Amino acid sequence: MAHSAHLITNEASKAPIVTIRDEQGATITEWPSSAELGLDQTDGLLREAGWIRSGDWTTADDGWTAPVRRS
User: For the chain, which ranges sit under pLDDT 70?
Assistant: First the structure.
């Protein structure tokens, strides 16, 4: 099963959000952040939650996305 992580950063009225989605794009889980997140911090959050990035981050319309798998 292919999963993806999304770091949503460009919603001006909201803090950054990290979302894990399944292969159909349905949200499995998400973590809002009270502070600015970079890609390194997001990798740390993913690891803490039991996910490992399995590919590079790429730009998306709403921030960044990368494939992930359960650790």
Answer: 1, 11-13
